[in-house]
Amino acid sequence: MQTHPKKRIEIVTEMPMLRRITARLDEAGVTGWSVVPILAGHGQSGDWTAEGQISATRQMVMLISIVDAARLDAVLDAVFAVVSTHIGFVTVSDVAVVRPEKF
Amino acid sequence: MIDLALQNLLSPMVLFFVLGLGAALARSDLSVPEAVAKLLALYLLMSIGFRGGVEVAHHGLTGQLVAAIAAGVLLSFTMPLIAYGLLRATSRLDPVNAAAVAAHYGSISAVTFVAVTGMLSQLAIAYDGYMVAVAAAMETPAIVTALMIARRYVKSDAETVERGQMMREVLFNGSIVILLGAFAIGAITGTRGATLLKPFLIDAFPGFLCLFLLDMGLVAGRGLAQGRRYLSVPVTAFAIVMPLIGATLAAALAVPIGLSPGSTAVLITLAASASYIAVPAAMRLALPQANPAIALTLSLGVTFPFNLVFGIPLYIAVAGRIAS
Q: Which of A51, B3, B231, B280 has the greatest CB tally within 10 Å of its CB?
């Protein structure tokens, strides 16, 4: 099967930031994204877990989006304008997709 | 006073909280799933809001409502200034973290509100249903004060991005919406609604409160274990002294308004509590430079247990002495 190269962006961020980031992705013309909950983790502030939490503050999510390489810089600029001072990280990796028109 | 303290200490609510706290500190794998914890919080706020609305439908609104809301808003606006000054004078917290912590202590804890109303119900002490509205009104002003304090030190996201959007999210956060929404439904449906929902929203309340406090104990214990390094002596002392300052200010305001002993206890407890839901989220948006672990460890790991075990019986006893 023929595959096509694309860029996969993963944004691990604080739950309260989610709406702001997805709004930026929409503005940057990203055609789709998915959100995955994160159960627990460890960072500069120590351990954290989502278990039993009723506040969104101690919860992290991972936002995944696949974009065309030509659009990558614009999307990253838009995302970074919001997340640069926040807890979390952004990674970009090369992936292959079978339906390029979707991205 | 001692009887009240003992009665509180040996109540199922406090004992379940202590069980959760101890289990977490002992690193037990006891846990309440996140979705269940959120459902419990939703249920408890819905129950309190609804019962408040029914009570208002029964007795009507009085001028005291406006005065109590005004007192609550005044407390919420001013307490962060005191908290900030106290933290800067006694601890090594930097201005941004001190402002973030101050916002938590100026606002209120819906969880503590649930606990004090549960305790009052257990003691058969009536409080005015409109205190639900007072609690809702006290949530936001502290955030504004803290942002004004912090503005001198950071260019916050809220200034460059969407301050209006952030305030909208705070005003319409889930706990406020369910509390006020259930209050309105209770006021509209009155006694008819109360009769219909009594088995669910009233009779089952103490059991669900125990389960919820078990979870709060677990979360507080985990927070304490993980955030221990932030608990310097001055900062820990602040988390106990600041509630007492807030309680004193609230007591001074409750007397001239003429609140009942139950409502006075609620106002004092609200002023003595520190936010755990709305303010932490707002601070993450507005002051991302602040470390959330500091405020949350203090709010849930120190102040909430202090209020639940010692503070609430003290506030109820004081309210009984000073209120009309």
A: B280
CB < 8 Å to A82, chain B: 157, 161
Under DSSP, the state recorded for A102 is G
pLDDT in tens, B103-133: 999 999 988 998 999 889 888 999 998 898 8
Q: What is the ipTM of this complex?
A: 0.74
Q: Is A17 on the interface with B (CB under 8 A)?
A: yes
Put simply, the answer to whether B281 touches A57 (Cβ < 8 Å) is yes
A99's enclosing H/E stretch is none
Q: How many domains does chain B have?
A: 1
Report the DSSP pairing between strands A40-43 and A46-49. antiparallel
The rounded distance, in Å, linking the Cα atoms of B214 and B276 is: 16
DSSP state of A86: S
pLDDT tens for chain B, residues 1 to 324: 677 777 778 888 889 999 999 999 999 999 998 889 989 989 998 998 898 889 888 777 778 888 999 999 999 999 999 999 999 999 999 999 999 999 999 999 988 998 999 889 888 999 998 898 899 889 889 988 988 888 877 765 545 556 677 777 777 878 888 888 999 999 999 999 999 999 999 899 889 999 999 999 998 898 888 888 888 999 999 999 999 999 999 999 999 999 999 999 999 999 999 998 888 888 888 888 888 889 989 998 999 999 999 999 999 999 999 987
Q: Which range of residues forms the domain containing residue B178?
A: 2-20+30-322
CATH of the domain at B195: 1.20.1530.20
One-letter amino acid at B228 equals: R
Domain boundaries, chain A: 10-42+49-102
In sequence order, the 6+-apart residues with CB closer than 8 A to the CB of A84 are: none
CA–CA separation, B270 vs B148, rounded Å?
Answer: 22
Taking only Cα atoms into account, the Rg of chain A, rounded to an integer number of angstroms, comes to: 15
Alpha helices in chain B (DSSP H): 2-9, 12-25, 34-59, 63-90, 95-106, 110-122, 131-137, 141-150, 157-160, 163-171, 174-197, 205-227, 233-257, 261-272, 278-286, 292-296, 304-306, 312-322
| A contacts of B169 (beta carbons < 8 Å) | 19
Please choose, from the candidates A98, A95, A99, A33, the residue with its C-alpha nearest in 3D space to the C-alpha of residue A69: A95
Q: Say whether pTM exceeds 0.80.
A: yes
| In contact, B68 and B262? CB cutoff 8 Å | no
Selecting from B31, B41, B281 the residue whose C-beta is nearest the C-beta of A16 gives B281
